[in-house]
Amino acid sequence: MGDKADVWQGTLTLMVLKTLEAMGPLHGYGVARRIEQTSGHLLSLNYGTLYPALLKLEQEGKVASEWGVSENNRKAKFYRLTRAGRRQLAAETRSWEQATAILARFLAPSEDPA
Amino acid sequence: VSALRAWAWRVLGTWGRSRRERELADELESHLQMHIDDNVRAGMLPEEARRQALLKLGGVEQTKEAWRERAGFPQVEQTLSDLRFALRQLVKSPGFAATAVFVLALGIGASTALFAFVDAALVRPLPYRDPARLVSVNESPADTPQRRTPLSYLDYVDWKRLGKGLASLDVFTGTGYMLSTPAGAEAVPAARVSAGFFRTLGVAPLLGRDFQPGDDAPGAPAVVMLTYGAWQKRFGGRADVIGRTATLSGVPHVVVGVLPQGFQFALRGRAELWTPLLPTGGCEQQRSCHNLRGIGRLRDGVSAPAVDAEMKGIAAELERLFPESNRDQSASIVLLSEEVVGEIRPILLMLLGGAALLFVIAAVNVASLLLLRSESRKREVAVRGALGASRARLVRQFTTEGLVLATLGATLGLAFAAAAMRLLLPLIPAEMMGRMPYLQGLGLGSHVVLFAGAVSLLSVCLFSLVPLLRLPSGPIREGLTEGARGASGTAWRRFGGNLVVVELAVAVVLLAGAGLLGRSFYRMSRVDLGFQPERLATLLVAAPPARYPNGPATAALARRVSDELESLPGVESVGLTSVLPVSFNGNTDWIRFVGRPFGGEHNEVNQRDVSGAYLATLRAKLLRGRFFSDDDGASKPRVAVVNQALVRKYFPDEDPIGKRFGDIRLSPGSIKEIVGIVADVRESQLDVETWPTVYYPFGQSPNTEFSVVARTAPAPASLLPALRAAVRRIDPELGVVDEVTMEDHIADSPAAYLRRSGAALIGGFAACALLLAVVGLYGVVAYSVSGREREIGVRMALGAQRWSVYQLVLGEAGRLVGFGMALGLALSIGAASLASKLLFETAPWDVPTLAAVAATLAASAMLAGYIPARRAASVDPMVALRAE
Q1: How would you classify the pairing of strands B660-662 and B290-298?
Q2: DSSP codes, B39-52
Q3: Is B409 within 8 Å of B91 (Cβ atoms)?
Q4: Are residues A47 and B26, on separate chains, in Cβ contact within 8 Å?
């Protein structure tokens, strides 16, 4: 466990939004599992931290929630992306790609002789 | 937008909380179940599956807590719970709460009330247009430029013509009129002003018109403007008052305007009628007759000192042109606000300083009580700390408690301040109030409430800081084990002890001041007046000179007033005088004795013109010769009665009866013969010896204004209306004012009023100071006892008696009281010696007064020491030892 990266602030929201976009309506547990799987189990995610993040997104109107039944017949609260959520996802994705592109250029091996 | 939306959600989240919490619990439960299902499917045992699921979640309670932080405003909720807790704490110790709130309210109330006076007088601008550009324009003796003296009319005209720095210059002077009303004539204070006066101030009339340039020219029709108050009170507030005629001292005036309600003019505050100043009087035609005060409006960009310099130049020029009348007449131009409040400013600031001191002492006292309490709550704080309350959390709780105390104190303090203002305002005599019209707006305005808020905030800071000093910064364990008191405790005790000594000394000084003034007032009421003031009713009659133009007419009126009033039921005898006794040394005459060498010296004596029955009505004591009779009229030889002081000074070893004196030229008509000697009647103020006095018969020296003195059988106050009515029956045009009993006249005379009101005012401050000192003493002694419970327990276990414990604690209180009292008594003797002018037949070290002060202080201080002493003596040695 010690080798796994922690989820750093801000990215969790993006991961949640992206997961919901990819998977459609999903409960908290499902979102957590999915994030872990997608990261190839490289992330150490406390599932509990997900719930304040989901609450914040809901308060901001980025996601909506309703009670439903899970695949193995358990009562669960399902979250789905709203239109505002999609807009935010698109915007954040763009800025994230930009940031990583810039960083990548910095970290790429220099072409000039030292 | 989404941030706003989230905020709204959170606010709403504060409500419907339990339902949403349940929903979260359900959600987490289903989360766990799904996770356990997965784990079991992966091959775990159910127990292990659950453990892993919980581990992965990071704990149910932790998740809920994190969720809560996000769901509402935990800060607000915590504050609310802190508030509830603080209130509960106060309710639990009502004695502490009541004392702290009351002391704080006293401090805040006193400082707020005095600030309200300062605000009304010094902070709020004068109610004129652009008041910062208004100046007061006066003459000034060249050798004492700080004195401001009146202008003469001709100087005013020249200043106005030659001065360039003022956009306008106008003058006013006080006067009074007898206003004819259906119920008879009434004396009304008034002012005469040049036509531009109200325009210079920037005041527009509410009704009608302002004075116009022609109104103050010779021969202009007589017009008058009314204040709002006069319009309401004397003209029934009727809208058609404009154009009506008012008869002022027998001359009809047309009412042309009514001034707005808020109008005030402190330099002539009581004036109700305003008339144009016509340069037709005798005074206005002489450059040496100074009867006017000027106001001016500065031109833009010109400063008051610049105009001062300019006018001084013009005055020097006038001095060169008119050397006999304008010798040494310079000019003085200061801001109008300086003229209006300049004199009262240092007094008010000093009072405000005193009130600030009172507030600081009150706040420190409450802080010391809080400290005492935090001492007994050390364990509670330690337990909270041990249970995980962070330091910041504890700070918040103490701050909240301070806030609650300060809020309660400030609220009560504002109520105190409002009550104090309502009580103090009527105590200011009408005449003084006339000079301070700005005090009419006194009240809890926005400035005042803001001030109270700032003061309360200051106390909140102090109150939350003090317990923090005692907050354990090191390991919490110390608090749990009742560790030894740290160095800060000792430092506080020393500071608190010194403070209490100062408080006690201040209380002693104030108590002694009030006591000495009170005793002076008492002594004054025992002064030998030379007459019997009981059952005497007095009033002042003013006859319009137009109706009583000469001596015989006035003498006949006086005779008639005497006779009519004497015939009233209940009236025993009636006398008339030009000046009531217990008024002043003044209205003097310079005399020269016949047959004595005369070198032009000023033999100045009080002159009183009295009716035949006056001295007998007063029951003054005739020592030799005779009093006047009504036969001593204008056609008879002129006579005089003199008082003992005159005999002592001018006839030390001669019999004055039959001796004659006259004016300084001994003109034939002025020679009088002394026919009687009266034991000194107190003509002067009570604190001043009466000068040599001569009494002339009214018939030989009549006045159009005279005071009536009636000796009555029933209480004199009950006869005042009948006396007034009887005078009015004689002639409705006679003015009747100042109806008062002789005893009230004496009690309200300036010398007595000064001591009485001074004693009351200082007594009020002294009561506050004493209360604060006693609370402070209690705080310090109780704090010291609270730290010595174990020591006392050990002493008692070793055989100390209860009385010796009392001795221990009261001894500590007694030491502080002893220091405070010694310091206070020394200071008060010093202060009283400096202010010995105010004392009357009372030494600054008056033993009975100081003894009473010391006894009062000692008794109150012992009470303050007794409460902690009893607590100390009731310490159960076993309990105290076990706490070890």
Answers
A1: unpaired
A2: HHHTT--HHHHHHH
A3: no
A4: no
Name the pairing type of β-strands B134-141 and A75-81: unpaired
Question: If you write DSSP's letter for every residue of B432-495 in order, what string do you get?
Answer: HHHH-GGGGG-S--HHHHHHHHHHHHHHHHHHHHHHHHTS--S-THHHHTTPPP-HHHHHHHHH
Alpha helices by DSSP H, B567-635: 614-618
Collapse the DSSP code of B593 into the 3-class scheme (helix H, G, I; strand E, B; otherwise coil) and give the result.
strand
Number of neighbouring beta carbons within 10 Å of residue A45: 22
Residue among B34, B35, B36, B52 with most chain A CBs within 10 A, to mutate: B34
Q: CB B70 to CB A61 under 8 A?
A: no
Confidence band for B125, pLDDT divided at 50, 70 and 90: confident
Q: What is the pLDDT of residues B325-370, one digit of tens each?
A: 888 889 999 999 888 888 778 778 878 888 888 888 888 888 888 8
Tokens of B34: 């799904």
What's the rounded Cα separation, in Å, for the pair B610 and B614? 6
Cα-based distances in Å from B588 to B490, B578, B640, B693, B709: 69, 12, 14, 9, 21
Q: Which residue has the tokens 């466990």?
A: A1
ipTM (interface predicted TM): 0.85
Closest CB to B58 among A46, A58, A62? A46
CA within 13 Å, CB half, B640: 27
d(CA B137, CA B296): 7
Task: Tokens 């007063």: give the residue.
Answer: B618
Tell which residue, B195, B196, B161, B173, has the closest CA to residue B297. Answer: B196
Share the mean pLDDT of chain B: 86
Is it the case that residue B472 has pLDDT exceeding 60? Answer: no
Q: What residues contact B158, with CB distance under 8 A and at least 6 apart? A: B314, B318
- The pLDDT tens digits of the residues spanning B575-599 come to 999 999 999 888 888 899 998 988 8
Distance of CA B387 to the CA centre of its chain: 54
Give Dmax over CA atoms of chain B in angstroms.
Answer: 145
Query: Model confidence over B529-542: pLDDT tens digits?
Result: 999 999 999 999 98
Q: Quote the pLDDT of residue B230.
A: 93
The residue type found at A12 is L
Q: For residue B542, what is the DSSP state?
A: E
DSSP for chain A? -TTSEEPPTTHHHHHHHHHHHHH-SEEHHHHHHHHHHHTTT-EE--GGGHHHHHHHHHHTTSEEEEEEE-TTS-EEEEEEE-HHHHHHHHHHHHHHHHHHHHHHHHHSPPSS--
Q: How far apart are CA B723 and CA B709, in angstroms?
A: 10
The C-alpha of B785 sits at a distance from chain A's nearest C-alpha, in angstroms, of: 52
For residue B427, what are the contacts with CB-CB under 8 A and spacing of at least 6? Answer: B757, B760
B31 in reach of chain A (CB within 8 A): yes
Is B26 at the interface with chain A, CB within 8 A? yes
Question: Which of 65-104 (B) contact A at CB < 8 A?
Answer: 66-67, 69-71
User: Which residues of chain A are within 8 Å of residue B27 when distances are taken between CB atoms?
Assistant: 28, 51, 76-77
The pLDDT value given to residue A110? 65
Residue A7 has pLDDT above 60, yes or no: no
First-to-final CA distance of chain B: 62
Close Cβ partners of A75 (under 8 Å, ≥ 6 residues apart) = A67, A68, A69, B26, B30
Whether chain A has a CB inside 8 Å of the CB on B228: the answer is no
Tell me whether residue B321 is exposed, middle or buried, using C-beta atoms within 10 angstroms of its C-beta: 0 to 12, 13 to 18, 19 or more.
exposed
Angle at B412 between CA B410 and CA B413, to 5 degrees: 60
Count the neighbouring beta carbons within 10 Å of the beta carbon of residue B473: 11
